[in-house]
Amino acid sequence: MANSAKILAFAGSARQDSFHKKLVKIAAQGAENAGATVTYLDFRDLPMPLYDQDLEAEQGLPDNVLQFKSLLKSHQGLLLACPEYNSSITPLLKNAIDWASRPEPGEPPLSLTCFKGKTAVLMSTSPGGLGGLRGLNHVRSILSSIGVLVLPDQTSIPNAYQAYDDGGNLRDEEQQKSVLALGHKLAQVVAKLEG
Ligand SMILES: Cc1cc2nc3c(=O)[nH]c(=O)nc-3n(C[C@H](O)[C@H](O)[C@H](O)COP(=O)(O)O)c2cc1C
Predict the structure, then answer these.
(1) To test ligand 1's pocket by mutation, which of 26, 126, 138, 139 has the most ligand atoms within 8 angstroms of CB?
(2) Would residue 1 count as lying in a domain?
(3) Who lines ligand 1 at CB under 6 A?
(4) How many domains does the chain have?
């Protein structure tokens, strides 16, 4: 199926055995099934220092931040699997968003070039019963306020230690389908918006 959507997929966790890396890869498969081109990003490969305005003033944006910004700019859709830490966003994800919101040389201040006009779908999973649902509200609010259209569709998978099989897929067929459908939906919406 032809689809022009370019989608960047990433988890807000660098943990090697992250449940969110598994989750976002399922959604990425759904987007690919719809014909989209998906790039998977692992933040373990792109470490960024804790945001510090003095560091930025002295050294500019670190190379890995520029690389993240470039990835964001070259994709129209974002698939984000967001762990919930104390009912909110992880520091890793917030830090990456904060860095990417800063202008690079030649960009006007507050232009938010990485975020404006992007379309995102959120998902979460957790060992707990709510599946990280509460954290998604915060991520939705942050992204919306910097110009990202966050689709209402989202999924939170509870009981993470039992939910995934050895291949990283969800044991429950309905859950697996719902996450695949998230990627499919994003691919379709992005293709329509870009078309
Ligand atoms: C600092 C911290 C705070 C956490 N807070 C919550 C929480 O509020 N709700 C929840 O469901 N799980 C919470 N957890 C558990 C995470 O959901 C769990 O560690 C999950 O595996 C993180 O995602 P990952 O596997 O992709 O790294 C927390 C974990 C940490 C380390």
Answers:
(1) 126
(2) no
(3) 11, 13, 15, 18-20, 83-87, 126-128, 132, 160
(4) 1
How far is ligand 1, taken at its centre, from the CA of residue 83, in Å? 6
The rounded distance, in Å, linking the Cα atoms of 195 and 190 is 8
Using an 8 Å Cβ cutoff, are 176 and 131 in contact? no
Which domain range does residue 72 map to?
6-194
Domain with residue 132: its CATH number is 3.40.50.360
Class of residue 52 by CB neighbours under 10 A (exposed 0-12, middle 13-18, buried 19+): exposed
Angle at 119 between CA 130 and CA 37, to 5 degrees: 100
Q: How far apart are CA 179 and CA 181, in angstroms?
A: 5
Question: Per the domain annotation, does 143 fall within a domain?
Answer: yes
Q: Is 192 exposed, middle or buried (0-12, 13-18, 19+ CB in 10 A)?
A: exposed
Q: From the CA of 132, give the closest atom in ligand 1.
A: 11
Q: What is the pLDDT of residues 30-68, one digit of tens each?
A: 999 999 999 999 999 999 999 999 999 999 999 999 999
Q: How far is the CA of 128 from the centre of ligand 1 (A)?
A: 9
Model confidence over 146-169: pLDDT tens digits?
999 999 999 999 999 999 999 999
Q: Report if pTM > 0.70.
A: yes
